[in-house]
Amino acid sequence: MAIQTVESLREHLELAIQVELSTIPPYLYAMYSIENQMSDAALLIRSVVVEEMLHGALVSNLLLAVGGEPDFESASYIPSYPGYLPHHKPPLLLELKKASVDHIRETFLVIERPEAPGAQPEDDEYETLGQFYVAVEQAIEALSAELDIFAEPQVERQMGDPSWYAPVRFDAADSGGLLSVTDRASAIEAIEIIVHQGEGLSDERWADPSHQELTHYHKFLQICDGTTPLGTVRDVIDNPSTSKYPEEIQPVSDLFNAGYRLLYLALASLFRGIDQVASVGSIYSIMSGVLSPVAHYLTTLNLDGGVAAPTFEVYEFGTENPLKHTRRLADT
């Protein structure tokens, strides 16, 4: 069914946010399992993760621009694993698993697969993300021709300052970055950044005009075809849960998950327009000062049958201030 109303457009943009966010933990989990975190394979995966975060921000900007409300505060955007990629057909199971050629081929390449030439737009259930975003783009074109859907774009709440995002190795600046969505043209530009960086267009392998950055699909393909070998991979267990870890490891897992939830709360503050500069600083501090070092530490902890890794579970702070609670966990 085509997206025919503004309300339906908002619903599909919320779905797009959930899709983008659901890919990040499986990608990160695979990256964390690679022993040499400065290897080309690890950095290729990291470059995809960084742009998936960018895509989540761009879709959130677009949702705000058409009068919607991103919900980063509740747990509704936080995926659980194993779980299915929302609305994908056929159903695609997402799991937290160590990096392997088979896992990347069977899951990551399917997520990022370009649509076939001539493929039709698909809005509710989609075979490729490219087809889904084309359906969203067509809806924006049609609705904006009849209604002023960008009458109140809420720019002050958007993550639109280009200085808040910088490409990492294997990404290129001219493939696209942050922008504020204020009208039809900027909305289409945001969608094109997402599609070009991710799946690309049909058989196009480049994400940028100067051919410096591969699309996500072709980055993962380089690992699968051996161009970029994975190297040594730690034997992290599949789909871990904190409750099944030994008691001495559970507090470390809790700390990671508290930081993960804190990241979502910082995003909530950002997209409410609350002291955005401080919110952006918090986001980057949480990622670099909590999530990354704790994740890497977890992968050094031995278990029966493998090693530990982040569980990416919803963490509840109770009545305590979330930041104080996380700091208390870190002190412990």
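(the above was protein one; protein two follows)
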Amino acid sequence: MKLNYMALNYHKLLGANKTMKHYLLQKLFSLFLVLFGISLAAFVLGILTPGNPAELALSKGGYSPTPEQIKEIEIEMGLDVPYPVQYVKWLNRVLHGDLGTSYASSRPVRQELIERIPITLKLGSCAMVVTCINGILIGCIAAAFRGKGIDKIVQLGINISLSLPAFWFALLLILFFSESLGWLPTSGNGGIRFLIMPTTVLALPASATAARLMRSSLLAEFGKPYYLAAIARGTNRFEQIIKNALPNAIVPVIALMGNTLGGLLGGSVIVETIFALPGIGSYAIEAIYGRDYPALQGYVLVTGCVYVLVSLLVDGISLLLDPKVRVGRRRL
């Protein structure tokens, strides 16, 4: 009997491992397609934008190039061949780390992105930490006091937070904490004081979304038999929430965090511009204003790849934390 039990467990484990490998292969293949789509979108962006890239590259400082010079640069940049050939050559350069040269600074786009990415990642990481702490904590409080005054206040705060335009909230913070009180710097990159207001603006709507999902997930757990049975036995409610309900309810919130990071990267464009942070968000705005299309293509590629990798990481964490996900994948 014992040998049969061990053999049964071995076959179950072997089946679970095969399922995990099959799922990971499917996920990697889908991510490959997504990355291919991102690269195609970045390339098409350079094609559809108005103006001749060769002329833009030569027209720095008010210089007016001649048609012969433009034709020569077009051949040098490979713009005289069909679009599919251009895409293959461009993709080959990208895969070798060559994202082109910025029209505005004449520097490699790769080098400029490397210099700016740490600032955006630092801002995004701070906003993500604040989002996780606030979202989970506020959601738990609202669910624990469902229908009471605290819950109503939290829901009102969530609705207000989701309704506030980011640029308007940022200007309010600057007016109050910088101009009126003089506590925080209005712009620039430095220590933690320079990140307090940008992080607050970036994390506010994300925290509200996470808190709302945390509350609804906990309320769903409150209606399940295991929770009702534990409460009926006289178990402390808050202890039951922390030990049993929260681990089950937090899985959708973790999945949300992957999508939230994409929103934080996109929202950093506005925040970095308002607070004059030299990250990749403000770099994208400068590229748009200066019609610097290689820089804009580099921004699209980098943010897209980061979003895809984070989604893969979050999906893997959800797969490990939630047995129901593994069972669902096994049935597919």
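Reviewer note on protein two: The radius of gyration is 25 Å.
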